[in-house]
Amino acid sequence: MTRVLVVDDDLAIREMTAMALEKTGYRVVRAEGLEAARAALRDGRPDLVLCDIYLPDGSGMDLLKEVRDLPNPPPVIIMTARGTLETAAQALKDGVAEYLAKPFDVPYLIACVKEALRPRLKDPEVADRGPASVIIGSHPSIVEVYKATGRVAPLNVPVLIYGETGTGKELVARALHRFGSRSEGPFIPVHCGALPDTLIESELFGYRRGAFTDAHRDRQGALAQANGGTVLLDEIGEISPVFQVKLLRFLEDGVIQPLGAERSEAADVRVVAATYRDLKAMVAAGTFREDLYYRLAGYEIRIPPLRDRLSDLPALVAHFQERFLGELGLPGPGALSRDVLALLASHPWPGNVRELGHVVRRLLIESGSLEDPAVAARVLGSLDGRAPGPSAPFQAPFAPLEVMERRYLLAVLGHAGGNKTEAARILGIERKTLSRKLKAVDEYGMDSPDGDDS
Question: What are the φ and ψ backbone dihedral angles of 60, each rounded to 5 degrees?
C-alpha cells in the first residue's frame, strides 16, 4: 500500500487530509511538526510527503531539503495558507512536486497526489534560499503567479507579463531575474510607454558621439547595459509599428547597432516584457506584429488585480503598515480596526496594490494608525474625487452595508487560511454566527472560501 507522510500542525487540516487520502486507499502517517516528521522518516521511507511550510518547530522547506538528501527521495507536496513568491520559487527549484494554497479542494489534492506519485525523469538542481518576500498574498490566483515564476525563471525563454497598473509586474520581472541563471548579471528596466520612437531607440540601442545634434558623447543602451542579465520592456504594447520591426530584429539575432555606429555588437540578454494591454487583440486589430508577439511570449504570466484577491487584503495592509511605520519613523506595531478593513475591502482599487500602499501611507501620515474609520473614509473619498478635509464627516464609500460586511468576512476568513474558528475569534463572534453569515454570502452569489470545520 502506498505510504504518505502528512505533516501539519493544524489538527483539523491534518486529519481532513489524512482521512481523504485513506479513503482513496493510501496508508497515512501523521506528524504535527518537523521533529515528528523526521522521526517518521527514520521509521521508514514514505512514497510521498505532504507538508505545510510553517511548522511550530521549523520549516517545511527544511524538511524538503532533508528529504531530497535521502537515497531515492520521495516526491514532496508543499502546502501553505501563507504562500510567497520566494517560497514557491525555492520549492520548485528544490524539486517540489506541487505547491498548494490552503484551503484546497479534496479532489484537487487527490489529483495532485496521484500526479506526484508518477515516476519523475530528473530532479532539478538545488538552489540557495531567496531573500525576503517582495510579493504578498496567499490567494490561489497569486500562488499561481508564484508557481509560474518559479517554473519559468531558470529557463532561457522570453516572458510576457500581463497585469493592470499597480499589480506588481516589475516585481515579478525582478523575481524572474533573481531566480534565473543570469541573476549575477544586471537587471535593467525600460518604460517603453513613456518614450517616443526617437528616444526609445537610443535608450535601448545606445548611440555614438555625433549621431544627432545633442549626442556629445557615446552612450551605452539598455540592451548593452543588460548584457549577461535581464532587460524589462515595460508597457511593450505602447511601442509603434516602426519600432516593433527594429525590436523584432534584435530578438531574432541578438545583435544591436547603436545609432551612428558602423558596426553592430552582440548582446546576450534575457527579455521580459510587460503590458496591461491585450496583445492578442492588438495582433488581430493589426496594431501589433504577430511575429513580435510570438517572440516575446515564450511564456505568459498573468497577475490578478487586487479586487480579485481581497482575501489578501489584511496581509497586504500589515505589510505596508510595517514598512511605512519604519520609513516615517512612527511608533509601532500599529493596529488595524475592523471598520477600517471593511472600508478598504469596499474600495474597487483601480490602482491595485500600488494604490493600497499609497492609501496606507496616507492613513499613517494623517492619523498615525489604521484605527480611525473616519480618516479612512476621507482618504478613500479623495481617491474617488470627493474633496478631502479635516472637517469632513464620516462617510463610507458608496456600497450597501451587507456588501461591505460580506467582503470583510471573506477577507478575514482568507487571512485565517479558511479556518472558521480562527476567523470567528478575530471577528469576536461565535463560530455558528460566522457560519450563518457565510451561508448568506453563498446565497448572495459571492465567492466564499471553503473553510475547515475546526
Answer: -60, -25
Q: What is the β-pairing status of strands 230-234 and 187-191?
A: parallel
- Which secondary structure element, helix H or strand E, spans residue 22, and what is its range? helix 11-24
**CB neighbours of 241 closer than 8 A, spacing ≥ 6?**
287, 288, 289
Q: CA-based angle 127:129:132, to the nearest 5? A: 145
Q: What is the pLDDT of residue 405?
A: 66
Model pTM score: 0.63
> Whose grid coordinates read 487560511?
417
Containing 137, the helix (H) or strand (E) segment is none
E strands in 177-229: 187-191, 206-207, 219-220
Q: Are 247 and 228 in contact (CB under 8 A)?
A: no
Length of the chain: 454
What sign for the dihedral angle of Cα 270, 236, 279, 293? Answer: negative
Q: Answer left, alpha or beta for residue 78, where phi above 0 means left and psi between -120 and 50 means alpha.
A: beta
Give the whole-angstrom CA distance, residue 273 versus residue 288: 14
The most distant pair of C-alpha atoms in the chain lies apart, rounded to whole Å, by 78
DSSP state of 125: P
Domain endpoint, select from 270, 304, 338: 304
Contact indicator for 263, 238 with CB cutoff of 8 Å? no
DSSP code per residue over 33-47:
SHHHHHHHHHH---S
CATH of the domain at 86: 3.40.50.2300
Please tell me whether residues 30 and 62 are part of one structural domain: yes
Average pLDDT along the chain: 82
CB 356 within 8 A of CB 376: no
Mean pLDDT of 79-103: 81
Give the phi and the psi of residue 312 in degrees, each rounded to 5: -85, -5
**Same domain flag for 157 and 297:** yes
**DSSP string covering 420-448, please?**
HHHHHHHHTS-HHHHHHHHHHHHHHT---
Return the CATH number at 327.
Answer: 1.10.8
| For residues 51-78, average pLDDT | 89
Nine-digit cell string for 1: 500500500
Q: What is the pLDDT of residue 418?
A: 74
Supply the pLDDT for residue 124.
31
Q: Please give the grid coordinates belonging to residue 87.
A: 517560497
> Do both 287 and 160 map to the same domain?
yes
Q: How many domains does the chain have?
A: 4
The pLDDT assigned to 427 comes to 66
Set of cell numbers at residue 240: 509603434
> For strand 98-101 and strand 76-80, is the pairing parallel, antiparallel, or unpaired?
parallel
